[in-house]
Design goal:
102 residues, globular, 4 helices, two-stranded antiparallel ribbon, single chain
């Protein structure tokens, strides 16, 4: 297995700081990869060992994006049931909070 294919082990993250460090590293690597993609890369058809089909790469990226949204909504629902709502999760609100201009 490639290191990136290795399953995460809870024991590798004994505290919040170690989880945050891993997340930051993963995000940095993903952003660098995404920035390296051009139109031809996005349109290129790639095989999926999960779904056993071949699709343009952008289909898989869109799936990852929408799946992450679903997970975020699920987590917000669970937190809200425990009176710990994460508050507004919308994209526009996030951009305002980060002071990212239009």
């Amino acid at each position: 297995l490639d290191e990136s294919d290795k399953e995460l082990e809870p024991s590798d993250f004994p505290d919040l700081a170690s989880l945050r460090d891993r997340w930051t590293e993963d995000e940095s690597e993903m952003r660098a990869w995404l920035e390296s993609l051009g139109d031809a890369d996005l349109e290129a058809e790639v095989d999926s060992s999960l779904t056993m089909d071949r699709r343009p790469r952008w289909h898989y990226l869109m799936h990852i994006f929408t799946h992450a949204q679903q997970q975020q909504a699920d987590a917000a629902t669970i937190l809200s049931q425990f009176d710990a709502s994460p508050g507004e999760l919308g994209f526009i609100q996030r951009m305002k909070e980060r002071q990212i201009p239009v």
